[in-house]
Amino acid sequence: MDSSVDIRPYSYRELDNGSCYLVNPSDDSIVGYFDGRTGNAHACDNRVAEAPHNLQELTASDPAVRFIGSLDGDTGQLTVRQPEGNYLRICRWDRLNPETALKSGAMFRTLPQCGCGGSLGSPKVFDSVVDMVAYHFFSFYL
User: Fold this and answer.
1) Backbone dihedral region of 115: left (phi > 0), alpha (psi from -120 to 50 degrees) or beta?
2) CA-based diameter of the chain, in Å?
3) In sequence order, what are the residues at sequence separation of 6 or more whose Cβ sits closer than 8 angstroms to the Cβ of residue 23?
4) Which is nearest to 32 in space by CA: 134, 139, 131?
């Protein structure tokens, strides 16, 4: 069974430094911002793209998906902000050894840790940090 995840139905608008806007495919509206410096995803809308100086204020706020660990590290966690404001630990992530990758090009594997026993299911693999964070943003935050 292939546990790879294709989030390509969600598009990106790439910016500098590995950052990008997360775009709703149904109406091409901006729904999030992936911060390439931290790995965090923040909820936002088209107004932020129209006034990019607002990104500093946005990134100073609590992220929707919090990337825990170093972007260059071997392991960490992803947490997703809940409506109450607390964070739910969704998964642990591990950087894959290229020689033992489960999927050609895969760089990361996630292991569910939320304790729900259902919707997260099995481990998933991703090609990049932005793919991994965007998947969790669209699946568990929006």
Assistant:
1) left
2) 45
3) 10, 11, 12, 13, 29, 30, 31
4) 134
* Per-residue pLDDT tens digits for 84-117: 999 999 999 999 877 665 556 788 888 887 655 5
pTM: 0.85
Cα–Cα distance, 76 to 96 (Å, whole number): 12
**Residue labelled with tokens 């809940």:** 82
Give the contacts of 3 (CB within 8 A, at least 6 positions apart). Answer: 102, 122, 123, 124, 125
CA distance 123 to 2: 10
The 10 Å Cβ neighbour count of residue 109 is 22
